[in-house]
Amino acid sequence: MGKNALIFGASLPGAMIATIIASVVAVLLLAGFVLYMWINQEKSAMIAREVQNITNQIGAGIVDFIAGGDGYITYASKGFYTLLGYSMTEIHEEFKNGFFNLLEDKYAEFMRTVEAGPDVSINEEMKINTKWGSKWVLVTGNAVQRKKIYTMSVVLVDITNEKLLNEQLIVEEERYKLVTELSNDVIFNYSIADDVISVSDNFISFFGDSTSFADFNRNKRWEKDFVYEEDREKFAELFRILTVKGDKVDEQVRLKDKKNVYIWCRIIAMPVRNQNGEAREIVGKIINIDLHKRELARLETKAMRDPLTGAYNKEYTKLLIERYMRENAESNGMLFIVDIDKFKQVNDTYGHIMGDNIIVEVVKQITKSFRSNDIIGRIGGDEFAVFVCNVKKKEDQIKQALKLHEVLRSPAVIGDKVIPKSASIGVAMFPDHGSSYERLVECADKALYAVKGNGRDNFIIYDESFERVKHGED
């Protein structure tokens, strides 16, 4: 058999053998190329899936749109719809599938000026409208050519929390600026052995007519009215830290000035040690920060309060409720979304000034009816959010809802006018109906719509049957 094979091989022409070898090599190369393309395609698909997962996890979305017009959306990732809270159908119906229609006006106008083309990119912070209100997003991307047409392909990243933190940093910077501008430091020295405290001459212009105080520790002078009653224990502790522990202190307390008014002061002090490491005296300074404290309180109020009613504004309401849920994961609460019934008719009948007065009156009524640790916010023109903390029993939950409903049914007395009013209330429970602010608002909104659909002037607690009705399951 081997011999026949040799004879047969030997009888083949050399050109034919070369052709066979070349064909085999070509087939192998083709197979290798196909394998290479298949592997790379799998890698590309895997990378695409990974990008999708990452964007979904970090509160981001990908969207492609045509430059010009309304920015018609040609593709959007799941993360994009999750970020906005709208479904694809809602984007088509409510916003005509236009990316620019989702942006606040000035950002939409800017985007309409962008012309897609080679080397065109974008990296801007913008405000976009979501189902729960506007959010700050970072829009980053560039033009992409597909079938001779350029579109913009961008990634949207939610930076709302970062923006809020940045605003808080601005308040802090203002605080330190005010400290620098307004403080007039009083220097003091305390001799531990002699129990005598001596202060610089400018102490007199702020606090009294003496620059030396004997028996400071033995007579416990902080228990006198020089230190504000609620701060005396804190003052005694900082004195103990200085003299017993020998550590530096930096504390804020209220001290009585020459006009018998308690003002906020910052005390910074540290022990001075001898060559043996023993604390022999204390040196420090008293900084008058009262004006800066008041200004800081004003800035903080401006940043977190609705200017008309004094209730928390929309952004801070969300921040406080999220903080409660994060820090009290094992507890519970109730979210009420309140909408004044037929408020447009009130404005049309009595005027917008009277309408504003009614809104102010509503907030006063709600505030009087709930505890100081409950969260009351104005989240829209005539829409309010009330979050009641730690309500465990079902009967207590019903009582809270009934109480709020009755409060909002009572007429508003404005001057010599008595104006009847009512409100529709949607209720969602934490954590039963959701453990995120967005989900709770969504459930409360559905309950609110149910109230409006049943004649208004009532409250309804969210139920999962709302979801089944929505999807045609009932």
Labels describing this entry:
474 residues; disordered C terminus; Beta-Lactamase; 18 strands; disordered N terminus; alpha+beta; 16 helices
Description:
- The protein is α+β, with helices and mostly antiparallel strands.
- It folds into four domains: 20-56; 58-158, PAS domain (Beta-Lactamase, 2-Layer Sandwich), CATH 3.30.450; 184-288, PAS domain (Beta-Lactamase, 2-Layer Sandwich), CATH 3.30.450.20; 305-470, Reverse transcriptase/Diguanylate cyclase domain (Alpha-Beta Plaits).
- It has helices spanning 2-11, 14-57, 78-84, 88-95, 99-102, 105-112, 160-182, 203-206, 232-245, 290-304, 314-327, 343-350, 352-369, 394-409, 437-453, 465-470, and strands spanning 60-65, 73-76, 121-130, 133-146, 149-158, 186-191, 196-199, 212-214, 249-256, 262-273, 279-288, 333-340, 375-378, 383-389, 412-414, 417-419, 423-430, 459-461.
- The strands form four sheets. The chain has a six-stranded antiparallel beta sheet with strand order 8-7-6-11-10-9, with helices on both faces.
- Helix 2 (14-57) packs parallel to helix 3, helix 12 (343-350) crosses helix 13 (352-369) and helix 13 (352-369) runs antiparallel to helix 14.
- The longest helix is centred in the first third of the chain and has 44 residues, at 14-57.
- The chain is extended and about 90 Å long.
- It starts with a helix and ends with a helix.
- Mean pLDDT is 82; it is low at 1-10, 47-52, 54-58, 179-183 and 469-474.
Shape: extended
CATH architecture of the largest domain: 2-Layer Sandwich
Helix content: 40-55%
Q: What's the count of strands? A: 18
CATH superfamily of the largest domain: Reverse transcriptase/Diguanylate cyclase domain
CATH class of the largest domain reads Alpha Beta
Helical region count?
Answer: 16
